[in-house]
């Protein structure tokens, strides 16, 4: 292996492999029938009621899968939420409109929605133009979507995925027509805006867990368990690292100094 | 057949993802005598980005065609939004023609379509840029209305949010600093600018870091699910189980 590993990457490879292994083991255990308790997410609990209310009022449901392409994991996570949402709307007999600003996202979203309506036995309701490509330009996209929201007055707006400045423009557009707003993003900079302007928000990592939580299949729930184990390990490492660093500085003893250097080597960035 | 439709995309996804992940950790090959594995990973790292760019060109075509088809149908059906659709179609065609023909700019395949004096640059400067600025300026009003709703002290959490926002805001303006300038030096940490800095550096940074660790783990978990074929794939119709 000498000469194969790029310089300065062994620690990232080690931590990454450990995290992947923990998640993979959890998935396998869940597939074999291990019970995986998952806490409920209030924004997702509100989804059923909001869909039912919107359809009862004859108002459409809007879903925006962020402003990035399929190479962004937040977009993939958003599409994982779209699948169960589309099914809920289809079962209620409502109209789901999905404006997109990337054509590959449009193509995938259309397939997801068409399949969800078919699975719910409401394929007759579905129209392909309910998933539309608007524009790659994010402000052009917002202008069109806000205009549609103002004219069509959706009863529920779901904003999931990566957002930049358009998060607040979209969320306030929905608020002005009295729509219930459920959002989720892992963009730390935009979270405060969504928290301020939406009724329910999935914070950070919850976005990546939302699809699995809504559909509840064992393997994907298992990966959530693995994620939690990794978080527990990260918290333990943070506490242990702080203790070791403090003891090394206070006592100056060789074993603590050695441990502190080991911690710093494993968790150094880049 | 459906088995093939499910498995082929999944195999491509798994192989490409593993190659790209491995290429991030393997040293660059030096000379043609490097092992095949190293050369393969270096090739994957360089070439897959190019392939993605080529795919993106087709994605633009897909988007453009969909846009034209959708709005043509709306104009044909004389729906309530047909005038908006007409404006969209006309704008799309004008920009497409002046961009493709490189009107007003250096001609030829190598000619810069955004060169000064080109019509496309004029459209950008005179139309698109002011439209962007107009829309962007709405944020100021939206932030005010969203903040007003968020900062109403209806619960313990929103009261804490209100109090910390007030301290940070006061700490950022000269008038706020004058408010607590009378606090003696030994208690200077109670001055509003110091409290503001503390909020930003300690609880805010701690929260952000916790969020980033959670997000990173979420991304890795989703990636593992996709590579292992656990995540459902809408294209293949697989259930992922």
Write a concise keyword list for the protein shown above.
heterodimer, A: 270 residues, alpha/beta, Rossmann fold, 10% strand, B: 241 residues, 72% helix
How would you characterize this protein structure?
The complex is a heterodimer of chains A (270) and B (241). In chain A, 61% of the residues lie in helices and 10% in strands. Chain A is an alpha/beta fold and 270 residues long. Chain A has a 6-stranded parallel beta sheet with strand order 3-2-1-4-5-6, with helices on both faces. Chain A is elongated and about 70 Å long. Chain A starts with 9 loop residues before the first helix and ends with a helix. Chain B has helices spanning 2-25, 36-76, 82-100, 119-150, 156-171, 174-179, 192-201, 203-227. Chain B is extended and about 70 Å long. In chain B, 14% of the residues are buried. Mean pLDDT of chain B is 85; it is low at 237-241. At the A-B interface, helix 1, helix 3, helix 4, helix 5 and helix 6 of A face helix 2, helix 4 and helix 8 of B.
Q: Which stretches of chain A of 5+ consecutive residues score pLDDT under 50?
A: none
CATH topology of the largest domain in chain A: Rossmann fold
Tally of DSSP β-strands of chain B: 0
**Helicity of chain B, in percent?**
over 70%
Radius of gyration of chain B: 28 Å
Number of domains of chain A: 2
Class by alpha and beta content of chain B: mainly alpha
Mean pLDDT of chain A: 91
**What profile does the largest beta sheet of chain B have?**
none
The proportion of residues in beta strands of chain B is: under 5%
For the residues shown, what is the average pLDDT of chain B?
85
Low-confidence stretches of chain B: 237-241
Net shape of chain B? extended
Overall 3D shape of chain A: elongated
Please report the two chains with the greatest interface, counting residues with C-beta closer than 8 angstroms to the partner's C-beta: A-B, 78 and 61 residues
User: From N to C, what is the helix and strand string of chain A?
Assistant: HHEHEHEHEHEHEHHH
Helix segment tally of chain A: 10
């Amino acid at each position: 292996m000498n000469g194969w590993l790029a310089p300065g990457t062994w620690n990232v490879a080690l931590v990454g492999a450990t995290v992947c292994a923990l998640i993979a083991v959890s998935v396998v255990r869940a597939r074999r029938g291990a019970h995986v308790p998952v806490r409920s997410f209030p924004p997702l609990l509100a989804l059923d009621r909001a869909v039912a209310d919107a359809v009862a009022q004859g108002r459409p449901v809007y879903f925006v899968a962020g402003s990035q392409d399929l190479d962004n994991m937040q977009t993939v996570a958003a599409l994982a939420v779209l699948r169960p949402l589309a099914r809920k709307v289809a079962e209620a007999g409502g109209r789901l409109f999905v404006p997109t600003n990337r054509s590959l996202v449009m193509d995938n979203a259309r397939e997801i929605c068409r399949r969800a309506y078919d699975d719910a036995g409401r394929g007759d309701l579905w129209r392909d133009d309910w998933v539309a490509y608007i524009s790659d330009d994010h402000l052009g996209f917002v202008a069109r979507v806000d205009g549609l929201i103002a004219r069509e007055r959706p009863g529920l707006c779901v904003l999931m995925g990566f957002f930049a400045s358009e998060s607040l423009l979209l969320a306030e557009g929905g608020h002005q027509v009295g729509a219930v707003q459920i959002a989720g993003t892992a963009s730390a900079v935009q979270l405060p805006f969504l928290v301020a302007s939406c009724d329910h928000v999935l914070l950070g990592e919850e976005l990546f867990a939302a699809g699995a939580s809504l559909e509840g299949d064992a393997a994907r729930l298992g990966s959530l368990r693995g994620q939690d184990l990794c978080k527990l390990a990260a918290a333990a490492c943070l506490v242990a690292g702080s203790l070791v660093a403090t003891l090394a500085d206070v006592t100056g003893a060789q074993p603590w100094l050695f441990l502190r250097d080991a911690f710093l080597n494993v968790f150094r960035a880049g | 057949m459906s088995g093939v439709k499910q498995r082929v995309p999944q195999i491509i996804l798994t192989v490409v993802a593993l190659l790209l992940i491995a290429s991030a950790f393997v040293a660059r090959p030096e000379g043609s005598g490097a092992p095949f594995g190293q050369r393969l990973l270096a090739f994957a790292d360089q070439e897959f980005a190019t392939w993605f760019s080529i795919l993106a060109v087709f994605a633009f075509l897909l988007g453009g065609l969909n846009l034209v088809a959708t709005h043509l149908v709306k104009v044909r059906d004389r729906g309530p939004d047909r005038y908006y659709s007409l404006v969209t179609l006309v704008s799309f065609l004008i920009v497409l023609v002046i961009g493709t023909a490189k009107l007003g700019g250096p001609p030829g395949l190598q000619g810069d379509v955004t060169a000064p004096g080109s019509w496309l640059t004029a459209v950008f400067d005179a139309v698109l840029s002011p439209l962007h600025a107009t829309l962007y300026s709405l944020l100021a009003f939206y932030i005010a209305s969203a903040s007003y709703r968020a900062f109403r002290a209806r619960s313990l959490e929103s009261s804490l949010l209100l109090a910390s926002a007030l301290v940070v805001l006061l700490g950022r303006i000269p008038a706020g600093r004058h408010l607590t300038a009378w606090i003696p030096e030994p208690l200077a940490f109670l001055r509003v600018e110091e409290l503001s800095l503390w909020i930003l550096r300690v609880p805010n940074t701690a929260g952000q870091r916790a969020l980033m660790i959670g997000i990173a783990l979420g991304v890795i978990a989703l990636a593992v699910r996709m590579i292992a074929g656990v995540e459902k794939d809408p294209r293949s119709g697989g259930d992922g189980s």
